[in-house]
Design a protein that fits this description.
Elements lengths: L12 E5 L5 E4 L4 H6 L1 E4 L5 E5 L4 H28 L2 H45 L6 H45 L1
Antiparallel strand pairs: 1-2, 1-3, 3-4
């Protein structure tokens, strides 16, 4: 194991050149070093690292970009805590989509039953009309109730289909981002 004292890449001196081109060397980094930019030197005075001068203007220009990066990093950490990795997110997506698909299938079965009931009610209505009899009020009520239920069921199915697509798109974004940060 190598100790810090024997590490040849350890900075021993810091040098900067002032506005007149005069070299200034010290064993610590001072504000003047940061303002002018400096070089880290090893004990043999060989340059091991160069650091650019600090620029307030450049720092201010980069501030919005750093804020966006910080927000993205924060969001990435939330995703990591929530899902851990893309495989877990994929599993959760599949479970969520399967649950919505089951709801859609159930609603479609109910829709088919309502459509079959409607056909039966219409046949009964036509039979009364063919015989010249008045259509009973309960049959009219059943037809109206059936029509309302059909409309409501179709809206529910459309809403579930939109929910399915939105859920899929949202998880796809999450999975893609997790793959980037893994």
């Amino acid at each position: 194991m190598m100790s810090f004292a024997n590490n040849p890449n350890k900075a021993a001196w810091y040098r900067y050149y002032d506005s007149r081109g005069i070299a200034n060397i010290s064993s610590t980094v001072t504000p003047a070093h940061i303002r002018h930019g400096y070089e880290a030197l090893d004990k043999n005075m060989q340059v091991i690292q160069k650091n650019r001068a600090y620029s307030v203007e450049a720092d201010l220009k980069q501030a919005p970009q750093r804020a966006v990066q910080a927000k993205q990093h924060e969001n990435d950490q939330k995703l990591k805590r929530a899902y851990n990795n893309s495989n877990i997110a994929t599993q959760k997506r599949n479970v969520a989509l399967q649950a919505i698909k089951k709801q859609i299938d159930y609603q479609q079965t109910q829709l088919k039953q309502l459509q079959n009931d409607r056909v039966q009610f219409k046949r009964e209505e036509m039979e009364f009309t063919r015989k010249g009899k008045a259509v009973p009020a309960n049959l009219k009520n059943n037809l109206a109730y059936n029509l309302n239920n059909l409309s409501s069921m179709k809206q529910n199915i459309q809403s579930l289909q939109v929910s399915y697509l939105n859920t899929q798109a949202e998880y796809d974004k999450i999975i893609a981002r997790l793959k980037v940060i893994e």
